């Protein structure tokens, strides 16, 4: 229904606005309600929500558009380089670098590369009761938001590597085992695996075969 679509856009805009505000250290006004601290139950509820699925899908589509522009400028490249910046996530640069190393050593048809500004997407950090997520800023730019509290409760490199998996087109699958990266927080805080399994690696290589595949995001999860 039209009303539902409008509501979803409104939710996405709100999520993006909050993410940008926290990333830039914006303090809520005195009359604003305090943002409650996140919990495993809160993260799980958001991760399984339609809002999160829609935001993740919009994020991947934004990355696709950025890469499509790159492909148009250099159609002969066999491997696509997806660029990102960490300007608004200085606290997580070590985890992001590790996540990039993991993914670049796991797949062959796409490569992640840091740039000083701009890029196909960006990382941001801050506080959000929903935890970490991938979304858009309302202007067609994708970003990964890394929540402080969640990254203290869960293995931070796994969180970052999981969210980066969305960059490459993988959906959430919280019912999976710890060995499955996109199971995210499903296996609990004791799970520290930050590496995609063979099926996840194969899926990413398939999506990015021949330099770029304009395949839609499977929103199951």
From TrEMBL:
<dbReference type="GO" id="GO:0008270">
    <property type="term" value="F:zinc ion binding"/>
</dbReference>
<keyword id="KW-0106">Calcium</keyword>
<feature type="active site">
    <location>
        <position position="163"/>
    </location>
</feature>
<keyword id="KW-0862">Zinc</keyword>
<keyword id="KW-1015">Disulfide bond</keyword>
<dbReference type="GO" id="GO:0004222">
    <property type="term" value="F:metalloendopeptidase activity"/>
</dbReference>
<feature type="binding site">
    <location>
        <position position="172"/>
    </location>
    <ligand>
        <name>Zn(2+)</name>
    </ligand>
</feature>
<keyword id="KW-0482">Metalloprotease</keyword>
<dbReference type="InterPro" id="IPR000013">
    <property type="entry name" value="Peptidase_M7"/>
</dbReference>
<feature type="binding site">
    <location>
        <position position="162"/>
    </location>
    <ligand>
        <name>Zn(2+)</name>
    </ligand>
</feature>
<feature type="binding site">
    <location>
        <position position="166"/>
    </location>
    <ligand>
        <name>Zn(2+)</name>
    </ligand>
</feature>
<dbReference type="GO" id="GO:0005576">
    <property type="term" value="C:extracellular region"/>
</dbReference>
<dbReference type="Pfam" id="PF02031">
    <property type="entry name" value="Peptidase_M7"/>
</dbReference>
<protein>
    <recommendedName>
        <fullName>Extracellular small neutral protease</fullName>
        <ecNumber>3.4.24.77</ecNumber>
    </recommendedName>
</protein>
<feature type="binding site">
    <location>
        <position position="157"/>
    </location>
    <ligand>
        <name>Ca(2+)</name>
    </ligand>
</feature>
<dbReference type="GO" id="GO:0006508">
    <property type="term" value="P:proteolysis"/>
</dbReference>
<keyword id="KW-0645">Protease</keyword>
<feature type="disulfide bond">
    <location>
        <begin position="178"/>
        <end position="191"/>
    </location>
</feature>
<dbReference type="InterPro" id="IPR024079">
    <property type="entry name" value="MetalloPept_cat_dom_sf"/>
</dbReference>
<keyword id="KW-0732">Signal</keyword>
<dbReference type="InterPro" id="IPR006311">
    <property type="entry name" value="TAT_signal"/>
</dbReference>
<feature type="signal peptide">
    <location>
        <begin position="1"/>
        <end position="32"/>
    </location>
</feature>
<keyword id="KW-0479">Metal-binding</keyword>
<keyword id="KW-0378">Hydrolase</keyword>
<keyword id="KW-0964">Secreted</keyword>
<comment type="similarity">
    <text>Belongs to the peptidase M7 family.</text>
</comment>
């Amino acid at each position: 229904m039209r009303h539902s679509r409008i509501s979803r856009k409104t939710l996405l805009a709100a999520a993006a606005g909050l993410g940008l505000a926290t990333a830039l250290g914006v303090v809520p006004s005195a009359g604003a309600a305090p943002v409650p601290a996140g919990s495993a139950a809160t993260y799980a509820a958001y991760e399984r929500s339609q809002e999160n699925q829609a935001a993740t899908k919009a994020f991947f589509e934004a990355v696709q558009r950025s890469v499509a522009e790159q492909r148009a400028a250099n159609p002969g490249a066999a491997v696509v380089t997806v660029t990102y910046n960490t300007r608004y996530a200085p606290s997580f640069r070590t985890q992001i670098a590790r996540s990039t190393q993991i993914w670049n050593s796991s797949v062959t048809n796409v490569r992640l590369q840091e740039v000083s500004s701009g890029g196909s997407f960006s990382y941001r950090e801050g506080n959000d009761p929903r935890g970490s997520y991938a979304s858009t800023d309302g202007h067609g730019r994708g970003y990964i938001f890394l929540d402080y509290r969640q990254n203290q409760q869960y293995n931070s490199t796994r969180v970052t590597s999981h969210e980066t998996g969305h960059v490459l087109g993988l959906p959430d699958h919280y019912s999976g085992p710890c060995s499955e990266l996109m199971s995210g927080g499903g296996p609990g805080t004791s799970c520290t695996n930050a590496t995609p399994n063979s099926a996840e690696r194969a899926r990413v290589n398939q999506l990015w075969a021949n330099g770029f595949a304009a395949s839609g995001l499977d929103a199951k999860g």
